[in-house]
């Protein structure tokens, strides 16, 4: 009889653990994030996208995406932050993070905290640099991800 | 009896503990990643492009789609000439490995975009078929099954706006599948092939019509070469063939960087404005010759 108890306990544990894993993976469901973001592209055509894993450290950290553009084209940048638990500041610059005198083109810092799909429209650049400034957090903060999608018209 | 009960209790406790231990091992990667790179901003800013074995690099890159490049060339006056593109019949001969297939999938996606935006219906159909054949070999057959892409493609032939939207959807599906299978390097290699085919077409059309806007856009494309090399280098370990592609694109960059107008612009530290750069016919010819040479090697398979 007790064999059934053992099997039941093992099954129960695996089910609970699987659901934990699902929650963890669900936080970075790239397909879902892309499909949601594509709706925000509206009349812009999909060009490219980048899923960036966001891990919280004990100090503030920065992750950067270099985005080549073409002069005269109109672009829509979408940042989907549905899958992060702590707010990350998104800044777009004209030069990389090693450069001095770089110009800030846009920032998400004034967007409402509840906003999960940040939009920035831009033209007249050959290249921009997207910086994610990740706030410090203790090791218990769950990692997440941000999806960046670029559209053009 | 006592022992039986004790054994039951022990097993009931042990089963979940064993499962929990297994789970901890499986999910440890994330925590390891965080602790490996836990020194924060100081480390990121001093070694910005370095990465630990398990951590994501602090700088990553995106690449434009072949469709956007075709659309930019089209706006610049790139007219359609038959027989410039790679023959769709070559699709069956690319079986020497993933790298050749990925590069030529890119070549065909550039050809498809060029034909579709110029309303060349029969050619578009042929390139769609060739792309599908190569995509299947790379495990991307699903792309064409999603959202009835293949059917939508057939029924919208000749409508360049709709075709653009369908090709953009194909690109997104391809990116999603490759990302899901952690094979983004295939996407980067395909883009390298598409880029070489796009600048090859641009060069050929320029030779025929001498349209200044086309040559200016050709120069603008050269700025993308840096990003392709960076993106390829990030996945160099994934396939031995990537090193050769990097060398090819670097050889194009070397020629471009040696142009008098580009050198002057680089020294002036001004923002790149390709409409102001003067490039001689001789310089352009040197560049297009190198592109022809590399492109011939790729389409040979």
Q: What would you say this structure looks like, in words?
A:
The complex is a heterodimer of chains A (153) and B (301). Chain A has 153 residues and is α+β, with helices and mostly antiparallel strands. Chain A has helices spanning 2-26, 30-41, and strands at residues 45-54, 61-68, 75-80, 89-93, 104-107, 117-122, 127-134, 144-152. Chain A has a 4-stranded antiparallel beta sheet, covered by helices on one side. Mean pLDDT of chain A is 86; it is low at 16-26. Chain B has helices at 2-26, 28-36, 41-46, 66-75, 98-117, 121-137, 142-145, 149-155, 160-180, 184-209, 212-234, 242-257, 260-268, 281-300, and one strand at residues 59-61. The interface between A and B is large, with 54 and 60 residues. β2 of chain A pairs parallel with β1 (59-61) of chain B.
Write the layout of secondary structure elements.
The complex is a heterodimer of chains A (153) and B (301).
Chain A: H1 2-26, H2 30-41, E1 45-54, E2 61-68, E3 75-80, E4 89-93, E5 104-107, E6 117-122, E7 127-134, E8 144-152
Chain B: H1 2-26, H2 28-36, H3 41-46, E1 59-61, H4 66-75, H5 98-117, H6 121-137, H7 142-145, H8 149-155, H9 160-180, H10 184-209, H11 212-234, H12 242-257, H13 260-268, H14 281-300
Helix pairs in contact in B: 4-5, 4-10, 5-6, 5-10, 9-10, 10-11, 10-14, 11-12, 12-14
Give short descriptive properties of this protein.
heterodimer, A: 153 residues, alpha+beta, Jelly Rolls, four-stranded antiparallel β-sheet, 2 helices, 8 strands, globular, B: 301 residues, mainly alpha, 14 helices, 71% helix, 1% strand
Provide a concise account of the structure shown.
The complex is a heterodimer of chains A (153) and B (301). With 153 residues, chain A is an alpha+beta fold. Chain A is built from two helices and eight strands; from the N terminus they run H-H-E-E-E-E-E-E-E-E.
Chain oligomer state:
heterodimer
The overall strand count of chain A is 8
Number of beta-strand segments of chain B: 1
The termini of chain A sit apart by 68 Å
**Helix percentage of chain A:** 10-25%
> What sort of overall outline of chain A do the alpha carbons produce when their principal axes are compared?
globular
Name the pair of protein chains with the most residues at their interface, and give those residue counts. Answer: A-B, 54 and 60 residues
Principal-axes geometry of chain B comes out as: globular
Number of spatially distinct domains of chain B: 1
Q: Tell me about the biggest sheet of chain B?
A: none
Instruction: Work out the count of structural domains of chain A.
Output: 1
CATH topology of chain A: Jelly Rolls
Q: Strand percentage of chain B, roughly?
A: under 5%
Distance between the termini of chain B: 74 Å
Mean pLDDT of chain A: 86
Report the β-strand fraction of chain A as a percent range.
Answer: 35-45%
Low-confidence blocks of residues of chain A? 16-26
Q: Level of helix content of chain B?
A: over 70%
